[in-house]
Amino acid sequence: MKELEDELANWMRAAQAGDAAAYRRLLSTLADLLRRWVRRELARQGYGIADAEDIVQETLLAIHLKRASWDADRAILPWLRAVTRHKLIDNLRRRGRRVMVPVDDVLETLAAPEHEETLSSEALDRHLATLPPGQSQVVRAISIDGLSPAETAKRLTLSEGAVRVALHRGLTALAKAARRSET
Q: Cβ contacts of residue 30 below 8 Å, gap of 6+?
């Protein structure tokens, strides 16, 4: 492995000095190395290797774009692994983990829906009145009126981020109040 690392580092140094042939050799060798790394990591994470080539190409592009960030006095393999790891993580985040189970397969194990207690409109208004006005308006718009955060932001002339923060804070305050009233 030390031999490979020295060879890759020498090609990268030559490529940074303008040697196009060394750069082609580097990228060709890296493509094979990256395929092995990416396939192994995808399998380890429980994914198929169908997207391996896309990740390899994204990684090669990232290496090309960020090649100046490699310190020629340091080992190249840790740098390459870091770039590859980031591209793998980006891909896995975009993809998400989805497990599809047909509902019919688990229908018998699902609990029957419980009867939910509903608040009277007076009780609901009383609870919302405990919140600051901005939070109350946001909670009412999203949780009661069924608006999306974008629609609520437009209606209240706020940013979507501000709406999300107000909703989170309002619901947290309501949950705390509900826990206090239970005790």
A: 8, 60, 63, 80
CB 49 within 8 A of CB 39: yes
Report how far residue 40's alpha carbon sits from residue 165's, in angstroms, rounded to the nearest whole number.
Answer: 40
Please give the structure tokens belonging to residue 77: 């393999």
Distance CA 83, CA 112 (A): 49
Run of H or E including 3: helix 2-16
Q: What gap in Å lies between CA 52 and CA 55, rounded to an integer? A: 5
Phi-psi map region of 157: left, alpha, beta (phi>0 left; psi -120 to 50 alpha): left
Query: Which has the closest alpha carbon to 88: 41, 33, 49?
Result: 41
pLDDT digits (tens, 9 = 90+) for 128-168: 888 999 999 998 898 888 888 899 999 999 999 998 999 99
Give the residue from 106, 112, 158, 154 showing the smallest Cα distance to 133.
158
In the numeric block, the tokens 């309501």 are attached to 174
**Higher-confidence residue: 177 or 135?**
135
The C-alpha torsion from 168 through 171 and 172 to 174, rounded to 10°, is 160
